[in-house]
Task: inverse folding
């Protein structure tokens, strides 16, 4: 199985400007992500950016970089420009590794690529992990995914899905509503593998990327602000599997960055 890793990297970030170039124990964040990706079985690892500062840094540590248009609305659009520049074939597999996950396990990168290769009915694959706490289940910043019996996504949402009607009864819901900011009154989440958090790593067939850039934003995508819903809206299937290793959270805020620096 052959696959290519592409790491989209933007300089601008509303919550953490210049995030890819943030120092983490003597190395930039983008270098640490790149080095993790190199430990996978990928045939090639490439940073995709529209910023000359990121380009200089990546070339400085010996990495490969592809300059892309600054007009892209999403990382997927940027990804498609890279595969077009590289001349990849329609059936080739590309893994999108987020540029703010310097602890991404190489085994997880291999897993999502392997799943894409074996799931012939899918045009895209991704991963998930269990949700154990009601607090996480009710958190709109944690994206949930519901899959069918064969491991294909039915829906992704910021809402709490699937809703455990009997366990989260009306009485418990009212208790929850009256306990703003408190976790002590949250009802217990049933012990079930149906409650899954989506992990934002994707593998694609190049043919899907080429179609994706021609689609309008889907209504459900606009509502949820979740790009993967555009794929489901247009009739393609997304394979979902539990991650083989725990995937530490990425870096979205200055607090996340300090936490990561402490780990290193």
Result:
């Amino acid at each position: 199985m052959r696959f290519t890793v592409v790491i989209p990297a933007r300089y601008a970030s509303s919550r953490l400007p210049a995030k890819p170039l943030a120092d983490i124990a003597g190395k930039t964040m983008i270098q640490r992500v790149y080095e993790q990706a190199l430990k996978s079985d990928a045939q090639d690892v490439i940073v995709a950016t529209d910023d000359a500062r990121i380009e200089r840094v990546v070339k400085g540590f010996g990495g490969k970089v592809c300059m892309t248009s600054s007009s892209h609305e999403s990382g997927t659009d940027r990804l498609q420009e890279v595969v077009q520049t590289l001349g990849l074939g329609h059936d080739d597999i590309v893994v999108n590794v987020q540029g703010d996950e310097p602890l991404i396990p190489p085994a997880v990168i291999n897993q999502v690529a392997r799943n894409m290769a074996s799931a012939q009915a899918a045009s895209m694959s991704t991963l998930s992990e269990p949700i154990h706490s009601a607090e996480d289940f009710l958190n709109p910043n944690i994206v949930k995914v519901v899959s069918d019996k064969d491991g294909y996504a039915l829906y992704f949402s910021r809402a709490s899905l699937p809703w455990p009607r009997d366990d989260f009864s009306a009485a418990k819901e009212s208790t929850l509503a009256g306990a703003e900011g408190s976790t002590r009154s949250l009802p217990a989440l049933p012990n079930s593998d149906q409650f899954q958090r989506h992990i934002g790593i994707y593998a694609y067939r190049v043919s899907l990327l080429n179609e994706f850039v021609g689609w309008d934003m889907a209504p459900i995508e606009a509502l949820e602000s979740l790009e993967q819903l555009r794929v489901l809206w247009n009739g393609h299937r997304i394979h979902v599997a539990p991650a083989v290793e725990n995937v530490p959270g990425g870096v979205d805020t200055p607090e996340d960055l300090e936490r990561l620096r402490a780990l290193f």
Notes: The two ends are 33 Å apart (CA to CA). The longest strand covers residues 196-205.
